[in-house]
Amino acid sequence: MSDEQRKAAAALLRERVPEVADIGRLFVKHGHELALVGGPVRDVLHGEWPTDLDLATDATPEQVLAVIGGWADATWTVGIAFGTVGLRKGSSVFEITTYRSEQYRTASRKPDVRYGRSLEEDLSRRDFTINAMAARLPSYQLVDPFDGLDALKEKVLRTPGRPEDSFSDDPLRILRAARFVAKLGLTIVTDVRAAMTEQAPKLEIVSAERIADELTKLMLTPDPALGIDVLVQTHVADQVLPEVSRLRIETDEHHRHKDIYQHSLTVLRQAIKLEPRYGLEADLTVRLAALLHDIGKPRTRELLPDGRVAFHHHEGVGAKMARRRLTALHFPKEVVRAVPQLVQLHLRFHGYAEGEWTDSAVRCYVRDAGPLLARLHVLTRADCTTRNQARAQQLARAYDGLEQRIAELSEQEELARIRPELNGHDIMRILRIPPGPPVGRARDFLLELRITRGQIGPEQVTQELLDWAAEQGIRLPGPGDEETSDDPPLIP
């Protein structure tokens, strides 16, 4: 790197990250080194604004606390066991980590932390050369011992040393490689790809929470399909998302159905394009549902007598598989609930696509989707990947019609808040039964009645309830029985 390039890099870093200059001067005043490192340096040199302010120092955590005492507005030490101290000054939040190297024991889920002696040594143990750059403070002098800036310009992903050593230090870096491919459009060099495949089994020592966090970051990149494909092609997905890897086998000898794996990546990309249309932004739930919506197909694959391939009920099987995988990876509970529900519902529209939707069908669609309706719109539209333009336009028009019907019925009936015409108190009064499971079953019946037939009025709904109770064997009071409530009957 030329002196002119170094000066330009320092000037850019000074312009984009001015808030670290003061803390840099503070550490120098106390006889310590401080540098902006890793992600923020990479982001600035890539032309982006940094989101994190990660700093590295030769000071121990205890020394860091002594230096910033009285200067910082707030400090926290939740990461001090790993050499990290957090602090806030004004609106700026910093994380300061002592020069270190991390290395996993053979069967450990937590790294051993060893403090390093110099910035260059610290950079040598980082994951990739694009992240092994630093800016010394307060001068902003660029430190780039492994040509990370060149790698960033060439759009290649390399490790500072041997990739086997880098991945042994922290196997999670294997997943991180896929994230940087998806985020920055990089190409992984041959030896790094080979090491990813070889070292993939070591991911079993990494906690599920860390894996889920890395997969989340990958899924929220501009083109996560690029990263997912890297994981599949290197067989890393066999360790963390085996259901996606298995989609590759779904091509029969007659080639009479689409490549399910490539279809899934296409659906993912199309879903991302559709997010803004429905007021969604980098939505983890809809992206995971798009990726996983067909994972039930390998288990339900059936070769029909005419040579065609069928996947009957794959949506139900896939929903169960998605729930198990997301649960095993410790994704948030709301994601574990929502993604399988979208997988279960993703074919619902196609049952009605050829004909006119009845009001009851529209109500059921909205009822079953609940708060996931916008996401279901995205997934269903994204799932149309046919190359037959006439067919694609037909499906798009049909879904436009469905959305219009939903809008019309919503105006008429406040569709999202559909309730039975009778509440629990009414049910107990009419049937003269105490609180208990039969009341819940009766309410479910009345809700389904409301959805399928709309509002039918108190007299008719009461009669329907009485007929249902008789069919269920719920004994109704006779003429001589006493009332169980002082309330007047709903119908005289």
Q: What strand line-up does the widest sheet have?
A: 3-4-5-2-1-8-9
Distance between the termini: 92 Å
Structural class determined from secondary elements = alpha+beta
Unreliable residue stretches? 251-257, 482-492
Q: Give a short account of the largest sheet.
A: 7 strands, mixed
The overall pLDDT, averaged over residues, is: 88
User: Which percent bin holds the helix content?
Assistant: 40-55%
Count of extended strands:
13
Instruction: Identify the overall geometry.
Output: elongated
Number of helices: 24
Determine Rg (CA atoms, Å): 30 Å
Percentage of residues in strands: 5-15%
How is this structure best described in words?
With 492 residues, this protein is of the alpha+beta class. It is 51% helix and 10% strand. The protein is built from 24 helices and 13 strands. The chain has helices spanning 3-16, 21-29, 39-45, 61-68, 119-124, 148-154, 163-169, 172-184, 190-199, 208-219, 224-233, 237-240, 242-245, 260-274, 284-292, 297-300, 314-328, 333-345, 359-369, 373-382, 389-413, 424-431, 437-453, 458-471; strands at residues 34-37, 54-57, 74-76, 84-89, 92-98, 100-104, 111-115, 134-136, 141-143, 156-157, 187-188, 301-303, 309-311. The strands form 4 sheets. The protein has a 7-stranded mixed sheet with strand order 3-4-5-2-1-8-9. A two-stranded antiparallel ribbon has the order 6-7. The radius of gyration is 30 Å and the shape is elongated. It starts with a helix and ends in a 21-residue tail after the last helix.
